[in-house]
Amino acid sequence: MEDRNTRDLCLMQRIAEGDREAFRELFDLCAPSVLGMLVRIVRNRGMAEEILQEVFLQVWRHSSSSPDEAPPLAWMLRLARSRAVDHIRRRQADRLIRDRAIAALEHLEQGFGLFSAA
What we know:
This protein is mostly helical. It has 4 helices and no strands. α1 packs across α2 (about 20-40), α2 (about 20-40) packs across α4 and α3 packs across α4 (about 70-110). The termini are far apart.
């Protein structure tokens, strides 16, 4: 019986050749581990599932350029972690922009006396 790494490397080779069944098999084997990690990072299953789709799209498109020295699952987990961290940073930046916009509007409203007691 072959080990997981050997099996995954064979699947990656087949995926690089356009084998959709190999992609389906790799997804079925690896998606639960990748999704589990993503849920722990982003703390939102729906967002984790979206990131998972992005990761496997990247696997499909770039399977021939996966690092040979790294096991495929490790490569996928690294891709997923990177995308999850990017998502968190975007979410934090969006929150900061929103908070600053609200603060600026409140400041303007106070300056125009829109909330002053009459």
